[in-house]
Design goal:
heterodimer; A: 304 residues; mainly alpha; MetI-like fold; 2 domains; 14 helices; B: 333 residues; 70% helix; 0% strand; disordered N terminus
Chain lengths: 304, 333
């Protein structure tokens, strides 16, 4: 043990070393996190003939908007953006309302199926029927190639359900009781009393759903890969990425690979421009809403 | 994401009992009284049965020879049962070190790597953030650190492929510093794939996973630090003897849950960043099931893989939960 006593506000030599290490590491993390984002932005706003030479850092060398104008040549991207927006809005609203309504019912201690339903939804976090049975069920309902495949199968996430339920449970029951005495029914109480009080948690859960909807691509890949009317922006970006990935793999196959690369319809600049469009909504709202994400996580977790 | 179930307090049960004592209403009356609650929840009851439990019936496909001809239900009911044929094929593949063997090996290797490095790094990062004295810098660092959690793997994979391309910044850096003689084709080298996946996952989730530890750290009783100081403890000793023991319950729960999810390492990044050159190290179980099950219409075979994965995963969660119960009063189920 150290026998010497340190005074509280005086830094020792050791303290400086520790501080140095900590700042060095956190700064590295900061740079490593931010650099890819800034690099993508820089390439997206840089002239494509210049970007090929490499070495673009975080500032465009020859700034231009041409890459974004080029995107107009790919009608699927615009279409995909609209679908992504639509599924984000519809999916978030529907999922959020469903989650809150069910969470309210499950929060009611007198509800007759409370334990049964809660267990049924909780188990969904641990059981996974696997890709193919799920695929078959969705096909048999005729949901493939339909817009609703984005909304219905992922309607309620058990995690979000628990989050909302525990929030409702800690609201004073007397609020509901007085409404019941005034003759309100369960549905009215939910709409008029519970929903307004749930605003903080609905912000969090709504954001979780929205981010999930905006970011998902695998459902399109699985259920509607060729239905160009409902492919999403992330899916179209995925296709562009896959193309370039197979080229990176081909680079070492010699000339044939090089040839494939030169014929590519998706040069680096276009890819980066699409990436910027795909990530922009998140970057735009992130500074304002990030505190809700965190509050949601700590709300659900600290209780353990 | 890691989730922890809140434990129901015994007091709640007592309240219900008191209220329903006396003349207990009959079931039909209770159902009628709760008709609004029932109407509000029954659609979701149907939903969960159809989309979460009905697919479980599809597991029987693993014991059938399922061929998709027109209607799914018709194909399902007309598919002949073949016993353990598909599982035998999987076993055969395992013993001859075929593609299933590779997929299983890759899944486990990447999970273990992630468990080894991805579990410790957020704890260290949280401890470091907590030691930062400049509050503003701390807040900004934290906010930025969990930004990558919110981008899709498609976007992240795009960024990673740019970073790691032969003309990319990481190669620029390596060559510039003289650490590499020539440019490294990171994504075309199958020996580097596991490492790249691990680093990518840590890059994406470090800040987000640190949140829970940071929350635990901030709830440590400040008095403990004061008394540690009186005993002459420096900063490192305070971290070692006060902070770490205090957040140990959280660490244990998260570790156990991570072990439980070991086989479900995710497949998006492997699928998006893998290519023909790295096929032997990038294919994980889900990708394998997708490629062979749906891609080649070998649905029964694919179901057998999925079923194998689910069963292993459930067993691991149960083991993890048993461990959790043994280590303390925390339970994750």
């Amino acid at each position: 043990m150290v026998t010497q006593r340190h005074r509280r506000f005086r830094k020792t030599k050791g303290d400086y070393v520790i501080d140095f290490v900590i700042y060095a590491v956190t700064l590295t993390v900061l740079v490593a996190t931010l650099f890819p984002f800034l690099n993508v932005l820089a390439i997206a706003f840089n002239e494509s003939s210049d970007s090929i030479k490499g070495g673009v850092g975080i500032i465009p060398r020859t700034p231009t908007l041409d890459n974004f104008k080029e995107l107009g040549r790919f009608p699927l991207l615009l279409q995909g953006g609209m679908i992504s927006l639509l599924r984000t809005v519809v999916g978030t609203v529907v999922s959020l309302l469903s989650t809150c309504m069910l969470a309210y019912v499950l929060s009611r201690k007198d509800f007759i199926f409370r334990r049964f339903f809660t267990a049924l939804f909780l188990f969904t976090m641990y059981i996974d029927s696997g890709l193919i049975p799920h695929f078959m069920v969705i096909r048999s309902f005729g949901l493939n190639n339909s817009f609703w495949v984005y909304i219905v199968p992922g309607l309620i996430s058990a995690y979000n359900l628990i989050l909302v339920r525990s929030f409702i449970e800690q609201l004073p029951y007397s609020l509901q009781e007085s409404a019941f005495l005034d003759g309100a029914n369960d549905f009215t109480v939910f709409v008029k009393i519970i929903m307004p009080l749930c605003l903080p948690v609905t912000a969090t859960v709504g954001l979780f759903y929205a981010v999930g909807q905006w970011n998902s691509w695998f459902d399109t890949y699985l259920y509607a890969p060729f239905n160009e009317k409902i492919t999403t922006l992330q899916y179209e970006l995925m296709k562009i990425l896959q193309q370039s990935m197979s080229q990176q793999g081909n680079q070492h196959l010699g000339q044939a690979g090089q040839l494939a690369q030169s014929q590519s319809i998706s040069p680096l600049s276009i890819r980066m421009a699409v990436t910027v469009v795909a990530v922009l909504p998140i970057l735009l709202v992130y500074p304002f809403v990030q505190k809700y994400f965190v509050s949601g996580l700590t709300l659900g977790a600290v209780k353990s | 994401m890691n989730e922890v179930k809140t434990v129901r307090k015994p007091a709640e049960a007592a309240v219900i009992r008191v209220r329903s004592k006396g003349d207990r209403p009959r079931l039909s009356e209770r159902l009628f009284k709760q008709r609004f609650l029932l109407i509000m929840s029954l659609p979701f009851f149907v939903w969960v049965l159809l989309f979460c439990y009905l697919p479980l019936l599809g597991w029987s496909m693993a014991f059938q020879d399922f061929k998709l001809k027109g209607d799914v239900l018709q194909s399902y009911f007309s598919a002949p049962f073949v016993g353990l044929k598909h599982f035998e094929a999987l076993w055969e593949d395992l013993t001859t070190q075929g593609r299933f063997f590779l997929a299983l090996r890759n899944t486990l290797a990447m999970s273990l790597l992630l468990l080894a490095f991805g579990f410790v790094s957020p704890i260290i990062f949280a401890l470091m953030l907590n030691e930062l004295r400049a509050k503003r810098f701390k807040r900004i660092t934290q906010t930025i650190s969990y930004l990558p959690h919110f981008i899709s793997w498609v976007v992240a994979a795009g960024m990673i492929s740019v970073m790691l391309s032969t003309e990319g910044p990481i190669n620029d850096l390596l060559v510039g510093l003289g650490l590499a003689e020539k440019r490294v084709p990171f994504l075309a080298d199958q020996n580097l794939f596991w490492g790249i996946m691990t680093v990518s996952e840590i890059w994406k989730e470090l800040g987000w996973n640190a949140i829970i530890f940071l929350a635990a750290i901030t709830s440590v009783d400040q008095g403990l630090y004061e008394s540690a100081e009186i005993d002459g403890a420096g900063r490192l000793r305070k971290i070692w003897y006060v902070t770490l023991p205090c957040i140990m319950p959280v660490i244990t729960v998260i570790l156990i849950m991570d072990i439980g999810w070991l086989i479900s390492v995710g497949f998006e990044k492997q699928m998006l960043l893998g290519n023909d050159m790295t096929r032997n190290t990038s294919e994980v179980l889900d990708v394998y099931a997708l490629k062979y099950g749906i891609g080649q219409s070998r649905y029964s075979f694919g179901t057998a893989i999925g079923m194998f994965k689910s069963v292993v995963s459930v067993v691991m969660v149960l083991i993890a939960n048993a461990l959790a119960k043994k280590t303390g009063d925390t339970s994750i189920l």
